[in-house]
Amino acid sequence: MSTRDAITISSQNQLSQSPQELTPDTEKAASPSNIIPGSDIPDGGLRAWLCVIGAWSVMSATFGYSNSFGVFQSYYITKYPEVSASDISWVGSVLLFFQFNFGAFTGPLYDKGYFYYMMYSGTIF
């Protein structure tokens, strides 16, 4: 008997066992009837909702300004007619470049636990 045949026979024996015959080592997960969806998710309460509101405020402010730059651009074109629209659009392009590309540096710092240092420096500057 080859190793392949032995594996096939072994796997067929395991498949033929009923759920009552499985040992706890074989079946480690709890049965689906005992688990209520979402019951293992902790409720953060007020602190969690304050975090959601804070994150929404930050995202609204940063992406709102970036996405509405076209309104500012039309204002700058009328205010400064001697400057071309292409030159004014560079301001918005550079803004978006810094907004997205600083994530490559700040993301790993945040993951390493330097959140407070970044928050202090962002607040001051």
Automatic annotation (TrEMBL):
- TM ranges are 48-68, 88-110
The UniProt keyword set, sorted, is:
Membrane, Transmembrane, Transmembrane helix
User: What superkingdom heads the lineage?
Assistant: Eukaryota
Stretch list, region Disordered: 1-35
Q: Which InterPro entries match?
A: MFS_trans_sf
Q: Which intervals carry biased composition (Polar residues)?
A: 1-23
> What is this protein identified as?
Major facilitator superfamily (MFS) profile domain-containing protein
The organism is: Kwoniella pini CBS 10737
